[in-house]
Amino acid sequence: STQKILNAAGPWAREVANMVGVDIPTHPERHQIMVTEPVAPLFDTMVISFQIGIYVQQVPHGSFVLGIGEKEEPSHNINSTWQFLEHITGELVRILPIMANLRVVRQWAGSYTKTPDSAPILGEHPEVPNFFMAVGFSGHGFMVAPMTARVTAQMMLGQRPEIDVSPLFLDRFERGELIVEPSVVG
Q1: One domain for residues 101 and 46
Q2: Whole-structure pTM over 0.85, yes or no?
């Protein structure tokens, strides 16, 4: 028995919510990433194509890290595939021909936890007292983890969060107040 529960289960958030008898609008989405051999600097900013959902960034030691979200049925599949390599390298060379001769040195896959608006769900579940959520970060979890931990701890301690996180409450979906972020890729 416990007094409070925090669901921060990433791609398994929906399954954890089901354990307490509720459903939340999250699902896992596989993202595959590849890394190229290091080369001299070509550009120092992230390149994003919103049209095809690809993102590319050259890291300080010279390698490029590339990824793309996949439009497939939600699952916990995190296997990387040859099809991904064929698809992403074809798209990459089409939009950045200068990268045509780079070698791929590794690839992997992992899960994003998506919500209908690609924004996280924070706060206490409106139907289950003391069941708190910090889920659905859609690939942005590491960037906001410190503040998420802080405001979630404040809410779990019965304190008012130091920043207003009410737009991220679960009931926004019921109210039809989804968060529109035009700069989300994948």
Answers
A1: yes
A2: yes
